[in-house]
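thread: overnight batch results

M.L. [08:02]
morning all. the overnight job finished for the chain we discussed friday. pasting input first so we're all looking at the same thing
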Amino acid sequence: MEENFTRQKVDTFTLTVYAETNSKPIAARLNEEPFSQEKDNRKIHFKAKDIATVSNPKSSDLAIVIAPEENRTANELADKLRQNRNLRIRVTDGYDNVFAKVSEIATEFERALQLGLTLNDYLQIYRKGIPMDKIENHVKIFTDGIAKINLDRPAVIGDGITLLQKEEAANLATYFDSKADNYKLKKFVPASGAATRMFKFLHDFIANYDPKKETINGYVNRVKDNSLQVFLLGLERFPFYKEIIAVSDEKIQCHEKDNENVREDERNYSFIKTMMDPEHFDYANKPKGILPFHCYDNYSVTPVHEHLKEAVAYAASNGQTHVHFTISEDHLNGFLDAINDARKRVEEESGIKIHFNFTYQHPETDTLAVDMNNNPFRDEKGKILFRPGGHGALIENLNRLDADIVFIKNIDNVRHTKMETIATYKKALAGILIKLQEKVFNYLNDIESGNINEAELDEIIKFAEQELSQDISPDFDKFTLQNKYIYVMEMLDRPIRICGMVKNEGEPGGGPFWVKGKRGRLSLQIVESSQIDLDNKIQSHIFSQSTHFNPVDLVCGLKNYKGEKFDLREYVDDNTGFIVQKNRMGKDVKSYELPGLWNGAMAGWTTVFVEVPLKTFNPVKTVNDLLKPAHQVPA
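M.L. [08:03]
and the structure it wrote out:
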């Protein structure tokens, strides 16, 4: 009896490689590689042409043009392929080993196909610079979920947090000053956020207030929110008052018969509308960093100005300071204007030369969005939806800095006064970092050179436990001597961060805790409430016992004992990110936010917590915070 077997059609993807020379033998080698073999009813097949021999390129599923960026013929060929609507990749690196580079691309493409993605999907991912292992990891996170942090206990004074006396802080600051010129210092300021939340209650007012139907006082009583009342009572104390009132008063249309209350309502309403109007000041859509925060004599200044003042006060070496802002590209011109307004004045006052630069959140840190079935979510054009990865994405920006020591502080955490105190404690944190680095680096050099015995190893373990808060393996004493050396090297050879902590007075946000890892080892971490299972009574109780709050006041050592930069990406705990649910095009969408910059993105760092005075923490979360003493001219 004859049996009929029907072979399923094989989908063949033809990839044409255009290289400078010797392309055909390369294609032959590529067709022998595992990624070119048929599997799951699909196959990748390579063709090749030397770039100089091609006048009219033939159509293929994907063209790979690989040659130096300055190769004019290659660029013209890529443009012809574009005109022919042929999918293409213009590769300007790896041209000295075309086989290896194209193999890398083909391997990534094969992994995309295995995930059920299309060629167009792969090109979208490739052009963002996202490796496929990250896409695979995102899919796994959505499928498996993210486990909550397991708190062991809060870090407190004497158990995870060091208390600095005023005299000790001054001595550490002096020590830092004596060492600063040996280091390249940089101040790193996350500054991309818009001021939308800062003005939320004013936005709600504009949307819901009808001057024809009620008074402003009636609105305040109706919505039961006194934020507007506080704002209006302090109106003339805001640093932007004079500039806005000069414009808003011209827009008022009051009748002489109107009583004083009506005229005042009209004036206040006009002020708020002018401040929020996109055609005028548009404050809610601008970044916080370029808004007026403080008044000095006859001029107002922005947070950018205050950060430049801070930089020359504690982050200068060899007569210069370097300040790095992470911003949204859309706001570049606004930041340039703010820096140009402040830079000359601060340089003249301090005698310190200011260097600055900007970076944006890199596209390769965007994360995959999925539907509720964990399939990639697609927009109206069929493209995969990617979303910004949150402030944890800034670990990439930090990783690319050329610096030995970096001071990190948020854009809105500035104050009008107390610069000497702020500088002293920032320098003190840096002094702690340098002292610890000196010890750690000496220990690591001694171990590497073999100039250390077992008794000295015990001294290192004691140092790691007492000064670095390391939880040593209970089996350490059972290790062979060689394995003890390996264990200690791995424990000490990592980036160090010194984190200022302030007493908790009810501010929302993260705090310092002892966290239990998967293997039961404890480590110091900065933990957000969203990372904790608050339905678990034990975990909720531990969280509620926190005595301190994270003000984002960090001093970081980015180089190892050999003077080489750490690859900070190696110390990120991907399992401490966040899955968030939002609505897009009327449909529920899940996206993954990367581990926060000072949370999971630094989970593998050596962490030291130090209490700093509350006066060093003065964030501006709402516009009314600018009325607090820290942001006003001293009486």
